[in-house]
Recover the amino acids of this structure.
C-alpha cells in the first residue's frame, strides 16, 4: 500500500483512467474543432478536424453583439471580479479579525450570524435587492454588480477568515503590541500578511463565483450597454443561434482566460476551492 | 512578555488568550462587514419573504394576498412541476456526481504516474463558466449532434434521442451535463478525505486478513463519511438552485420538462413581472435549502461523535 | 506457530537505494527475536516484508517451510502491532479486536466468546464499547495487542509498539508483552531502536545497521562479545570507550600501549598477528573502576579526573587520558550508534555513586577490554584482565 510499488495493477488503473479522461475531455475537442470550421464545413463532416482552420471565426466572435465587443466584456468582467475580490478581502479580513478577537459571547453570536447568512440562498433576496438597486440607479452598471457581490459574498469571506484566525496563535500580535505598534499597524503589518493562505482561498472562491455567475448578472445587466462575459456570450448565442462555429469561437474566448489561469495555478485553485467548501 | 494562554474549556485545542489584546480590538471594526451581511442576507431575505405574500409588479405598491401565491404554486402544474423537477434533478445529480467523484478519487488514490495531471484534468471543468460549457453540450446533444452520430455509427440507432428536445430525457440530459461539470469537485473532496486516512489502517486491515473490498467497505468508506457529508450537502445545494446550465441548455423546455424553481423564479419575476409570485417560489426554494443545511449540520455533529 | 527464515532477503527501492541487503536470520519457532538498530537501518523494512506490506526484491522469505515472498498479507496469518497502533477509529474496542475474526468469517457467538476471553486477559472489559479516541495510550496499546492475539496467528510482528508511551508505562508494557508472548509461545519478531527494550525483551537480538545484519545473539552474547565496533558502541549506555592503541612484545608477554601508558595483557593467540600494529581498544564504562577497588588485579591506566555526573546508585566519571590518546576512527558510527565520548583522550567510567573521587590524576583499573580491527571494525579478541 504505502509501498512505492508500481505493478500491473497500477498500470491497468492508469490506462483505464486515461481512457476515462479522453472521453471526459472529448467536448473540448469538439469545441476547438467546430470553432475552426467554415459555415458549410460544420455539417459536412461533423467529427473531423476542419480542412482549413478558420481563424476568421474568432475575429467575428470577438466583434460580439449589440455594439459590445468580447474584449470589452472581458474587461468588464475583469474589473467587476477584481474590484469585488479586493473589497471582500479588505472588509472581510478586518471584520473577521474584529469578530475573532471580540469577547467570547459576542464572538459566538456574530459567528452564527455569518453562518446563517451563507446558508440563505440568493434567490429570495434578489427581488428586494433588484428593486432597491433599481431605485438607486445601480442596475445596468459595473458599480452595481461590484456592490451587489461584495454584499452577497461577504459572509463567505468573513467565514473563511474567521476559521483561519481562530487557529492562529496570538503571540505575533502581542509581540507587535509590546514592540509599540498601534492597532492598525498590528493588523496591516502583522496580521494581514499572516492571513495570506486564506486570502488566496477567499480570492479563488469568490473570484470564480463572480467571474462565472450568470444568474445575477442576467438580472442586473440585461438590456444595458455594460456587458460582462457571461451576458455577452448569452447575447451572442441568442443572435447566432445555429451558427455553432461562431458560437464556439466565442465560447473559446470566454473560457480561455480561466483555462490559462488554471494551467498556471491549478494546485492553488484546487486547494482553495476544496478548502473553502470544506469549511 | 506574552500573556499566558489557557485552553478554552468548551473547545479543546483552541487557544484563547487572557484578557489583553482581544479587548483592545474594537468591535466596530466589524461594522462594515456585519452591515453588508445584514442588509443583503437578513433584510433582503425577510423583505423577499414578505413579497411572497403579495401580488406585485415591481413598480406599484405590493398588495397583500395571504397564501394565494403558495396555493397557486402547489396547484398549478407548471410550478408544482418545477418543484418536482428541482427535487428530481438535485437527487439524480447528487447521486451521480458523488458516485463518479468517489470512484475517480478511489482510483486516483494510488501510486500513478499521471496522478497530478489526471486530477487537474478532471477538476478543470469545475472552474469553467457553466454557461459556456453548457453551450458545448447543447451542440453535442443536438438531434444531429456528435453523440447521435457516434451512436449511429456504432449501430445503436435505438439509443439515439433528441436529447434536449424530448421531454422524457431532457431533464436527465441536464443532469448529465451537471455531473460532468462537477464530478471533479467531489473527486477532490473525496481524495482529500482519503488522504486523511492513515496508511497504517489499511495495512493493519490487510494483515488482519481483510480483502480489498472489505477494506474499502469497512475502513475507507466509514472514514470518508465526513467528506461525504460535506460533498453531498454542497452538491445538493448546487443541484437545488441550478440555473445557468438549465437556462443555457433548455431554458426550462421542452414543455416545461426541465423547468426548475430557479428558472421559474427568474421567468416569473423578471420576464412576466410577477414579483410576488417569484418571491413565493424563492421562499419554497429557500425552505428546501435551509432544511437540507440543517440536516447537514446534524449529520456533521453525528459523524464527529462517531470517534468519541 | 511457525519458524521464519530470511534467506538472502533484500529490498532495493526503485530509486536504487538498498534498504535491506542479503539478510539471513532464522527466527526459531516460539522465539522472541528483537531487531534493533538506529533509524534507517532496515529493521522496519524487514518486518514489513514479513508482513507482506513491502515487496521483496531478492532472496527468499520462508515461513513454516513455505516460501511466502508473493503471498498476500491476508493469506500469511501473521498479526502486526503498529507503532501508532492503527486502531480503527470508527470501531469500538470490541469491533477492533473482533475485526480479524470477522474477516475470517468466524461465527458471531464464537467471536464474542473469543473477544471476551482476550479482553479479560488484557484488562479491557470496562472499555469494550468505547472508541479508541477515548482510551489512554497504554489502553490503546493493549487493544492493539488484543487485535493481534485474537486470531491465534502464526507469528506476531511488532513495529516499535512501545515508542508512543511515556517512560513509566513503557517499562510496564515491556514486561506485559514479554509475559504474554511467553504464555502463548507465539513466534515474535519485534522491531525497536531502543537497546534497553531489545536487551530486556528478546530471547535473541539481531543488530542491524545500514541494511546489513551485524550480529544475532542472546542479549548476553551481544553485550559480552560484540562482533564489531558498531555493535559494541550501539549496545550499552553510556557507550563503550574506543581508544586507538598499539600492541608490543616485551620479553615473553604482550603489552598494550595507549598514548604513553602501557599495560600487560595475557597470552591471547588472536592478538599475536597484531603485534606492532595499530588496533582499537574498547572498554565499557562499567569495566573501568577505581584502582583500590580491583584488588591489584588487571590492567591499570592513569587518568585525570574531569567531572562526575551523579546518577545514583551510580556515577559517570569523566576522565582524561591525555591529549595524545586518539579515539578510534568514527566513519562506522553515524546514526544513533555514534559513541558520544569521542573527544581526544576523554573516557567515561561508571562506578558506584558512594565513592568520592579526589581531583587530580589517579589510577584506574580495567577489568575487561575488546580489541577491534581499525580497518573494518571487526572484533579480534575480548580479554579479561582481572583473571590474569
Amino acid at each position: 500500500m504505502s509501498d512505492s510499488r508500481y505493478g500491473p495493477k497500477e498500470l491497468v488503473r492508469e490506462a483505464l483512467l486515461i481512457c476515462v479522461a479522453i472521453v471526459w475531455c472529448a467536448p473540448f475537442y469538439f469545441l476547438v474543432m467546430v470553432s475552426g470550421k467554415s459555415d458549410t464545413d460544420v455539417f459536412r463532416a461533423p467529427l473531423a478536424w476542419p480542412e482549413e482552420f478558420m481563424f476568421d471565426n474568432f475575429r467575428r466572435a470577438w466583434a460580439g453583439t449589440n455594439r459590445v465587443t468580447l474584449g470589452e466584456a472581458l474587461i468588464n468582467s475583469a474589473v467587476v471580479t477584481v474590484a469585488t475580490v479586493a473589497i471582500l478581502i479588505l472588509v472581510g479580513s478586518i471584520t473577521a479579525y474584529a469578530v475573532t478577537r471580540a469577547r467570547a459571547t459576542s464572538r459566538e453570536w456574530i459567528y452564527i450570524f455569518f453562518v446563517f447568512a451563507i446558508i440563505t440562498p440568493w434567490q429570495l433576496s434578489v427581488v428586494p435587492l433588484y428593486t432597491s438597486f433599481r431605485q438607486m440607479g445601480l442596475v445596468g452598471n459595473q458599480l452595481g454588480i461590484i456592490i451587489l457581490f461584495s454584499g452577497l459574498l461577504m459572509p463567505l469571506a468573513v467565514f473563511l477568515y474567521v476559521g483561519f484566525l481562530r487557529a492562529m496563535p496570538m503571540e505575533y500580535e502581542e509581540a507587535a503590541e509590546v514592540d509599540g505598534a498601534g492597532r492598525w499597524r498590528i493588523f496591516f503589518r502583522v496580521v494581514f500578511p499572516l492571513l495570506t493562505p486564506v486570502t488566496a482561498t477567499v480570492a479563488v472562491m469568490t473570484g470564480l463565483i463572480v467571474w462565472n455567475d450568470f444568474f445575477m448578472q442576467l438580472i442586473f445587466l440585461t438590456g444595458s450597454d455594460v456587458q460582462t462575459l457571461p451576458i455577452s456570450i448569452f447575447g451572442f448565442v441568442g443572435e447566432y443561434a445555429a451558427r455553432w462555429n461562431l458560437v464556439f469561437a466565442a465560447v473559446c474566448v470566454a473560457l480561455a482566460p480561466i483555462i490559462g489561469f488554471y494551467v498556471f495555478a491549478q494546485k492553488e485553485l484546487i486547494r482553495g476551492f476544496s478548502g473553502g467548501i470544506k469549511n | 512578555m506574552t500573556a499566558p494562554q489557557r485552553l478554552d474549556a468548551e473547545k479543546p485545542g483552541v487557544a484563547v488568550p487572557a484578557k489583553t489584546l482581544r479587548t483592545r480590538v474594537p468591535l466596530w471594526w466589524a461594522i462594515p462587514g456585519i452591515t453588508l451581511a445584514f442588509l443583503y442576507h437578513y433584510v433582503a431575505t425577510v423583505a423577499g419573504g414578505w413579497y411572497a405574500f403579495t401580488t406585485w409588479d415591481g413598480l406599484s405598491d405590493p398588495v397583500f394576498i395571504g397564501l394565494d401565491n403558495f396555493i397557486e404554486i402547489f396547484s398549478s402544474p407548471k410550478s408544482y412541476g418545477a418543484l418536482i423537477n428541482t427535487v428530481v434533478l438535485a437527487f439524480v445529480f447528487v447521486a451521480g456526481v458523488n458516485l463518479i467523484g468517489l470512484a475517480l478519487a478511489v482510483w486516483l488514490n494510488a501510486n500513478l504516474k499521471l496522478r497530478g495531471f489526471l486530477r487537474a484534468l478532471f477538476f478543470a471543468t469545475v472552474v469553467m463558466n457553466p454557461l459556456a460549457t453548457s453551450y458545448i453540450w447543447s451542440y453535442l446533444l443536438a438531434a444531429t449532434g456528435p453523440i447521435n452520430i457516434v451512436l449511429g455509427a456504432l449501430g445503436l440507432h435505438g439509443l439515439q434521442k433528441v436529447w434536449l428536445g424530448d421531454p422524457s430525457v431532457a431533464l436527465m440530459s441536464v443532469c448529465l451535463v451537471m455531473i460532468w461539470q462537477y464530478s471533479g469537485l467531489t473527486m477532490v473532496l473525496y481524495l482529500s478525505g482519503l488522504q486523511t486516512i492513515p496508511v497504517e489502517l489499511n495495512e493493519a486491515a490487510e494483515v488482519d486478513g481483510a480483502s480489498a473490498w472489505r477494506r474499502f467497505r469497512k475502513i475507507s468508506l466509514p472514514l470518508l463519511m465526513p467528506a461525504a457529508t460535506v460533498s453531498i450537502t454542497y452538491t445538493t445545494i448546487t443541484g437545488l438552485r441550478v440555473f445557468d446550465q438549465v437556462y443555457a441548455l433548455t431554458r426550462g423546455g421542452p414543455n416545461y420538462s426541465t423547468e426548475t424553481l430557479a428558472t421559474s423564479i427568474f421567468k416569473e419575476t423578471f420576464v412576466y413581472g410577477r414579483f410576488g409570485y417569484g418571491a413565493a417560489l424563492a421562499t419554497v426554494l429557500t425552505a428546501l435549502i435551509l432544511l437540507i443545511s440543517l440536516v447537514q449540520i446534524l449529520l456533521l455533529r453525528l459523524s464527529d461523535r462517531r470517534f468519541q | 506457530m511457525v519458524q521464519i527464515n530470511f534467506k538472502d532477503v533484500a529490498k532495493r527501492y526503485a530509486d536504487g537505494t538498498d534498504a535491506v541487503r542479503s539478510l539471513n536470520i532464522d527466527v526459531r519457532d516460539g522465539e522472541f527475536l528483537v531487531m534493533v538498530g538506529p533509524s534507517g537501518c532496515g529493521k522496519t523494512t524487514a518486518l514489513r516484508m514479513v508482513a507482506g506490506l513491502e515487496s521483496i526484491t531478492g532472496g527468499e522469505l520462508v515461513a513454516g517451510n513455505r516460501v511466502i515472498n508473493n503471498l498476500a498479507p491476508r493469506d500469511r496469518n501473521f498479526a502486526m502491532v503498529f507503532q501508532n497502533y492503527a486502531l480503527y477509529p470508527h470501531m469500538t474496542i470490541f469491533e477492533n479486536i473482533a475485526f480479524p475474526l470477522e474477516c475470517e468469517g468466524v461465527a458471531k457467538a464464537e467471536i464474542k466468546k473469543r473477544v471476551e476471553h482476550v479482553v479479560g486477559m488484557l484488562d479491557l472489559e470496562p472499555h469494550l464499547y468505547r472508541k479508541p479516541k477515548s482510551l489512554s495510550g497504554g489502553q490503546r496499546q493493549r487493544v492493539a495487542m488484543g487485535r493481534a492475539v485474537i486470531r491465534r496467528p502464526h507469528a506476531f510482528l511488532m513495529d516499535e509498539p512501545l515508542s508512543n508511551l511515556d517512560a513509566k508505562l513503557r517499562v510496564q508494557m515491556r514486561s506485559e508483552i514479554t509475559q504474554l508472548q511467553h504464555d502463548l509461545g507465539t513466534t515474535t519478531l519485534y522491531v525497536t531502536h531502543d537497546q534497553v527494550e531489545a536487551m530486556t525483551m528478546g530471547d535473541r537480538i539481531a543488530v542491524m545497521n545500514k541494511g546489513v545484519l551485524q550480529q544475532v545473539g542472546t542479549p548476553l552474547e551481544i553485550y559480552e562479545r560484540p562482533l564489531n565496533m558498531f555493535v559494541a558502541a550501539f549496545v550499552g549506555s553510556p557507550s563503550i570507550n574506543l581508544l586507538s592503541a598499539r600492541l608490543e612484545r616485551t620479553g615473553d608477554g604482550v603489552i598494550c600501549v595507549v598514548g604513553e601508558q602501557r599495560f600487560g595483557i595475557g597470552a591471547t593467540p588472536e592478538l599475536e598477528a597484531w603485534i606492532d600494529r595499530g588496533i582499537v581498544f574498547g572498554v565499557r564504562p562499567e569495566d573501568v573502576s577505581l584502582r583500590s577497588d580491583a584488588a591489584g588485579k588487571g590492567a591499570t591506566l592513569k587518568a585525570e579526573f574531569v567531572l562526575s555526573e551523579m546518577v545514583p546508585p551510580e556515577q559517570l566519571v569523566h576522565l582524561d587520558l591525555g591529549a595524545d590518546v586518539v579515539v578510534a576512527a568514527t566513519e562506522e558510527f553515524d546514526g544513533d550508534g555514534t559513541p558520544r565520548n569521542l573527544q581526544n583522550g576523554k573516557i567515561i567510567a561508571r562506578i558506584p555513586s558512594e565513592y568520592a573521587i579526589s581531583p587530580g590524576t589517579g589510577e584506574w583499573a580495567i577489568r575487561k577490554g575488546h580489541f577491534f580491527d581499525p580497518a573494518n571494525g571487526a572484533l579480534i579478541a575480548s580479554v579479561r584482565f582481572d583473571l590474569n
About this structure: The domain at 234-384 of chain C is CATH 2.40.50.140 (OB fold (Dihydrolipoamide Acetyltransferase, E2P)). Helices of chain C lie at 43-51, 93-104, 108-121, 137-149, 167-184, 195-201, 219-224, 229-234. The two ends of chain C are 47 Å apart (CA to CA). The interface with chain A takes residues 13-14, 48, 53-55 of chain C (CB under 8 Å).
